[in-house]
Amino acid sequence: MEEVLVQRKIIHVDMDAFYASVEQMDFPELKGKPVAVGGGENRGVVAAASYEARKFGVRSAMSGYLAKKNCPDLIFVRPRFDRYKEISRKIRTIFLEYTDLVEPLSLDEAYLDVTYNKKGNPSASMIAREIRERIFQETGLTASAGISVNKFIAKVASDYNKPNGQKTVGPDDVLAFLEQLAIGKFYGVGKVTTEKMYQLGIFTGLDLKTKSLEFLVEQFGKSGTFYYYVVRGIHNSEVKPNRIAKSVGTEHTFDTNISSEVFMEEKLEIIANELASRLQKHKVSGKTITLKIKYSDFTQQTRSKTLPYFISDKSLIMESVRELLYQEKLKDSVRLLGISLGNLNTEVKKTVVAVQLKFDF
């Protein structure tokens, strides 16, 4: 069937410093202070940082050691995921009052397709504002939103007026918005890719737009095709209410670095057991086993193997994990190990057919 370009009304809602904001709300003594949710300065990694901490360059995925170095007054708080999930469920309930087309990306962000919504409101911008007000009234937390014709632009726009703001990029403004956008602000363009773009003379969306499809594919592979189309406002991915996981994984960070493969095997047995339990609970299996290794210097390595059949059993998982562990010599002591199973039997492909829509934002 023929795939047709769709002009939808998409909202991307993103909670503001969600984990850290929950902690500051629940514990008033933390308000106005630099807070990092994570494992601590010695062994942990920052899961989220308050805006007060971000002023010092503290970011998620940063080591606790470096975060504390950047911000000596940083307060570390252990994550409380049950509490975050509880609030996330409340927020999801609000979303579903407006549309059933809600695609959660994580506990603190989601896409909403409000082209046809339960309130009969023709203005996606008004709906976004109303949802943000409802979230604040019912949870005490602030959210930001981006509103546009597709998921990519809505995601970029939601970061534009953070915190506690929103930005609408209407159909007639899409190309101008993307052309002036700094290349590092493009969703999907990470730090390494940004540096490569700079080396190629690509600093803005307009610069990116001057490059041919062939050139971008040559430089960036499949991602080059993605960059070529999104900078022209073309991104046809629909909001999927039931997102299918592409992999299931479990990992552990250790209190003391491990340097012996024998000890690692013991830890991996525990991790594999947890993974197998999760797989069985969700009734899924997969073909691709990945072993994740994070060394004491925070460098990371992954080793993968794809089997000709689906597995979910712990013993079969460990059989491949052992092979991957001894595949090559470890370069240093290890602080984290993880196992994930991808290429799941839940992955299905669909063809989307829709019609061209015109509307006011």
UniProtKB/TrEMBL annotation:
Annotated catalysed reactions: DNA(n) + a 2'-deoxyribonucleoside 5'-triphosphate = DNA(n+1) + diphosphate
Q: Which family does it belong to?
A: Belongs to the DNA polymerase type-Y family.
Q: Name one Pfam family in it.
A: IMS_HHH
- The active-site annotation reads E109
Report the function annotation for this chain: Poorly processive, error-prone DNA polymerase involved in untargeted mutagenesis. Copies undamaged DNA at stalled replication forks, which arise in vivo from mismatched or misaligned primer ends. These misaligned primers can be extended by PolIV. Exhibits no 3'-5' exonuclease (proofreading) activity. May be involved in translesional synthesis, in conjunction with the beta clamp from PolIII.
Q: Which cofactor names does the annotation list? A: Mg(2+)
| PANTHER family (UniProt xref) | DNA POLYMERASE KAPPA (PTHR11076:SF33), DNA REPAIR POLYMERASE UMUC / TRANSFERASE FAMILY MEMBER (PTHR11076)
Residues in UmuC domain copies: 10-190
Major site of localization recorded for this protein: cytoplasm
Keywords carried by this UniProt record: Cytoplasm, DNA damage, DNA repair, DNA replication, DNA-binding, DNA-directed DNA polymerase, Magnesium, Metal-binding, Mutator protein, Nucleotidyltransferase, Transferase
Name used for this protein in its record: DNA polymerase IV
User: So which domain of life are we looking at?
Assistant: Bacteria
Cited InterPro entries = DNA/RNA_pol_sf, DNA_pol_Y-fam_lit_finger_sf, DNA_pol_Y-fam_little_finger, DNA_polymerase-Y, DNApol_IV, PolY_HhH_motif, Rev_trsase/Diguanyl_cyclase, UmuC
Subunit-structure text: Monomer.
Name the PROSITE patterns on file.
UMUC
Give residue numbers for the site Substrate discrimination.
Y19
Q: Which GO terms describe its cellular component?
A: cytosol
Residues annotated to bind Mg(2+) = D14, D108
Q: Its encoding gene is what?
A: dinB
Q: How is the cofactor bound, as the UniProt entry phrases it?
A: Binds 2 magnesium ions per subunit.
